[in-house]
Specification:
- The protein has one helix at residues 2-65; strands at 70-78, 87-90, 103-106, 109-117, 122-126, 133-138, 148-153, 157-161, 167-172, 175-181, 191-194, 206-210, 222-229, 238-242.
- By secondary structure, it is α+β, with helices and mostly antiparallel strands.
- Strand 1 and strand 2 (87-90) form a beta hairpin.
- The termini are far apart.
- The model has no long low-confidence stretch (mean pLDDT 76).
Length: 245
């Protein structure tokens, strides 16, 4: 009788457990997958915060090296999908000491110059715009040759089209370094900086790197070449505006 009673109780209980065990297992698996996804989200957020921290450290270091000379300004909007079509609006204006024609840069190099100013905002004409012209020099790293001077111009942008014919992206054309003297031969990837001639931009700001145009042409008195910008314009989030005394 005792065995019969135990069998009567245990049998249905075991059967019920066997029936509902897959459901409990599936529920437990779903819970674990949800927790794992939440942990991945936290890890992605941590990496993003670390990158933001690193970027802000660079900005603070740049500002500390030039105290009271540069005004940090957040980027508010861009002209074009990639933010490189010509103008960029930043969140500083005349109330912060920003003036027209002031130099705009980041630790990596020259961004452009201030074109229009309101009390709280300023429009920056970017280096990539074809109307921008900057007196520059190419560093040859050879004291006997000296620096090769020229005028750098923005290359503008071109539109990339999808197969459907829709405009999906603006690609930055290389900058152009013009009016370079025919000699000497220029090293590959030569660094180009502002020369300070004309008084528009201060001397020594990095502009880009020469990617072609090193060959001599005996039929021409001058050369020109393509230049890769030093600044990644679509990724700009903050810039520095030079305070004009």
């Amino acid at each position: 009788m005792e065995n019969a009673r135990a069998w009567t109780v245990r049998g249905p209980v075991a059967w019920l457990k066997a029936v509902f065990r897959p459901a409990r297992t599936a529920s437990e698996n779903q819970r674990l997958r949800t927790e794992a996804a939440a942990l991945r989200m936290l890890e992605a957020e941590r990496e993003s915060l670390a990158e933001e921290n690193q970027r802000l450290r660079k900005l603070l270091g740049y500002a500390a090296a030039s105290t009271n000379r540069w005004i940090c300004a957040p980027v508010l909007s861009r002209d074009g999908a990639g933010g490189v079509r010509g103008l960029m609006r930043v969140g500083r204006g005349s109330a912060d000491g920003v003036k027209t024609n002031a130099t705009v840069a980041v630790p990596g190099g020259l961004v452009g110059r201030v074109e229009n100013v309101t009390r709280r905002t300023a429009d920056v004409r970017l280096l990539t715009d074809p109307s921008t012209k900057v007196a520059c020099e190419i560093q040859t790293n050879d004291p006997s040759l000296g620096a090769v001077q020229g005028i750098l111009e923005g290359g503008g942008t071109q539109t990339a089209h999808a197969r459907t014919g829709l405009s999906i992206l603006y690609l930055v054309n290389p900058l152009r370094m013009r009016h370079m003297k025919r000699r000497p031969l220029l090293p590959p990837n030569a660094k180009i900086i502002t020369s300070g001639l004309g008084g528009v931009f201060p001397r020594g700001l990095t502009v880009g790197y020469l990617i072609e145009g090193c060959e001599e042409d005996e039929t021409q008195l001058e050369r020109e070449g393509a230049v890769m910008p030093a600044v990644d314009f679509p990724s700009l989030e903050d810039v520095f505006i030079r305070r004009e005394d």
